[in-house]
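Example with several molecule types.
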Amino acid sequence: MQEKRRKILDATLKLISQFGFHGTPMSLIAEQAGVGAGTIYRYFENKEALIMKLFLKLKAEISQEMLNGFDSTRPPEQVFRQVWLNTFHYCIQHPAEMMFLEQYHNSPFLTPASESAVQDMLAPLVKYAEKSTASGQVKEMPFEMLTIFVYDTTIALAKRHISGFLKVDEFALDLAVQASWDAVKGPAA
Amino acid sequence: MQEKRRKILDATLKLISQFGFHGTPMSLIAEQAGVGAGTIYRYFENKEALIMKLFLKLKAEISQEMLNGFDSTRPPEQVFRQVWLNTFHYCIQHPAEMMFLEQYHNSPFLTPASESAVQDMLAPLVKYAEKSTASGQVKEMPFEMLTIFVYDTTIALAKRHISGFLKVDEFALDLAVQASWDAVKGPAA
Amino acid sequence: MQEKRRKILDATLKLISQFGFHGTPMSLIAEQAGVGAGTIYRYFENKEALIMKLFLKLKAEISQEMLNGFDSTRPPEQVFRQVWLNTFHYCIQHPAEMMFLEQYHNSPFLTPASESAVQDMLAPLVKYAEKSTASGQVKEMPFEMLTIFVYDTTIALAKRHISGFLKVDEFALDLAVQASWDAVKGPAA
Amino acid sequence: MQEKRRKILDATLKLISQFGFHGTPMSLIAEQAGVGAGTIYRYFENKEALIMKLFLKLKAEISQEMLNGFDSTRPPEQVFRQVWLNTFHYCIQHPAEMMFLEQYHNSPFLTPASESAVQDMLAPLVKYAEKSTASGQVKEMPFEMLTIFVYDTTIALAKRHISGFLKVDEFALDLAVQASWDAVKGPAA
DNA sequence: TATGAATGAGCGTTCATTCAT
DNA sequence: GATGAATGAACGCTCATTCAT
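Resulting C-alpha cells for the full complex:
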C-alpha cells in the first residue's frame, strides 16, 4: 500500500523542515506517520535514501509548479513574470517544502546524481529561454545563469518574507519581479 | 594561548564544510586541530557554541571583505560592482567558508541572535544605499531586498561555479554583474 | 517483557551495592543484566531514575518484610521483637539490598519525593505504636523517634555483623533486641 | 605551608557534604580553596586519598568531641549522657561534618584500614565501659554493640532533626537520651 | 613551591537499523 | 506485509590527573 509511503514522506517533510535532518529521528518520523519504525525500511533503504527521495519528489513538485500555465507563445516578459510568481507563491504557500529543499541544497547530502535528476523537468523552459535569448529579448546568458534570477532571487525573497525580515506586500512583490526581469531582459525587450 | 583556539576553528571550518555539522564529530575536530578532545571545551562551551562562534567570525570576515575599498563618494554603479565582485571573489577563493555559511544559514542552528549580531557590520552600506535610492540612481526598495541582488545572486553564481555547473569566466562574470546591476539601477542611472 | 526490567534491576543492585553508584557504569549494568546498553533506556529514563526506582522497590520490600506476621492484637513487646527481628534478618539475608538502601539514604540522590513515597507503607505500625504509647506500654515518643530503636539500631547491628566487626550470634542478638526494647518500653510494660 | 592543606580540606568538606563525592570535581575544590588545581596533588596523592584523609580528620574530631569532659570517676549514667549529648551537639552544630562522615561510612570508599585507624581514639571509653559492665551498671555487651546506642542512635536523631523530620527540643532530647540509657543500663543501675 | 592549560579515558545517552513475531 | 523491542556503535562531554612554566 503506497498510502503508507506517502504518510512517511509527509511526516519526514513536516519534521525535518522544523527540526532539521539530525533533529529528526526515524522513530519520530514513524510515530508522526503512524507506522512502525521498521515499516519505513520496507519503503526506503535507509534514512539517507528516504531524504533523497523526498527531495526528488519536492523538486519535481516545485518544478511542476513553476511551469504552471506556461505558454511558449506568449512574450518573454510575461512568461518570466509568471514563472517567477509561480515559484514565489509555491514557496510562501509551502514553507516547509521550501525549507526542506534549501536545507538539502546546502547539505552534504546533495550529490550530483540527485541534482541532475531534476534538470530535464524544466526542459520546456530551457528551450523557450534559448529562443528568447536568440531574439534579443533576453540577455544572452547560459540557462544556469538565468535561473539565478528566476529561482534564487525568488527563494531569497520568500525566505525574507517567511522569516519576517521583509514584509512582502503586492507592491514589494511587483518591485522584486520587475527588478529580476530588468536583470535578464535583453536589448530587444 | 589563542593559537589553539584558531586551530580549532580552522579544523571545524574545514571538516564541517566538507562533511556537514553532523558528519563532523568533536573528536575529529580535535584530531584535525591537533589538540585533545577535552581541549576544545576550554575554548568553546559546546559544539553548538563552537559552530556559532565560527559562523560569527566568518560572517564578520565576509562582511569586511564585501566592504573592501568601499568609497561612498563614488557613483552607485561602481560601488555596486565593487561590492558584488568583492563578495564573489571571496566566495570562490574561500569555498569552504562559503559552504559553511550557507549550510548554517539554512540550518536549525540559525537563531535570531546569531542573525542580528552581524546586521550592523554592513551599516555603511545601508546608509549609502539610502542615499542612492533617494537620488534615483537605485530603485526605491528596502535594503533587505537590495541585498538579494548584491548577495544572494552572487552566492548563487559562486555556488554554480564551484560545483562546476557553470563555468564562470571573465565574460560570464561581467554578464552577471551587469544583470544584477540592471536589476537594481534606478531611473536616474 | 518485564523479565528484562527485572534483570536490569537485579544487576543494578548487585553492582551498586558492591562498587557504589559511580563505580557502576551503565555499560556494566547492561553487561551484567545480559542486555544491550540501549535497552536499559527502554525501561528507565536515565541512570538516576533507574536507581530511584530500585530504591523504591527495595524500600517497599523491606517495609513488607518488617511487617511480616504483624498482629496488632499481640502485646507491644512481642510485636516490637518481631518487627526488630524481621528487619534484622532481612538485612543479613539481603546484605546487598541493605548496603544499597543505606548508600542511597546517605547520598545526594535522596529527594523528599523518594523519601515520602514510602512513608505510608508502615502505616499499620504507626497506628499500633500510638495505641501502645497511649496504654503506657511504650514510652510516649513520636513515631519518628521510635523508629530509631526499631530500625536504625537494627541496621547498625546488621552492618557490624556483615562487616565482621561484631559476631552476632543468638545470644548477642537477644541482647540487642532486649536493649532496644528497654529503650522504648514504657512504665506500664 | 599547611595553611593551603587546611583550606583544601575545608573546601572538600563544604562541597562534598553538599554535592556528594561525585558531584564535587577536584577543580571545584581547588577553586573553593583558592588554590590551583594541581596544588591539591602536592598535599594529597589523589582524590580518594584526599577524601580519606578528611574522613580520618573528622573522625578524630568527632571522637575528641565525644570524649569532651570525660571523667572516669563519675557514674556510668552521667558519663553515658555526657558522651551522648556531646555527640549530638557536635552533629547538629557541624551538620556538614556529620553528612560527610555518614556519606563516607556508607560508601565503597570505606576500607578496613580507614575504619580501624580511629578505633583507639575511643580507648578510654572502651576501658571505662568494661569497668561499668563488670560492675553491672551497664549491660554486659561488647563495646561494638554499646556504640550502637551511644553513637548510631545519636546520629539517627541528629539526622531526623536536621532533615526536619523530627523537631528535637529539650524535652525530646531528654527523652531520647533516657531511652538510649535505658537500652544499655545494667541490672545494678 | 604553585600553577592551570592540556589531556584523553571513560562516562551517560541516542538512534539508525535489524529481525523475531 | 507490518511491527516495535532490542541492539550497540558512536556521539558529546566531564574531570582526575599531569607537567611545562
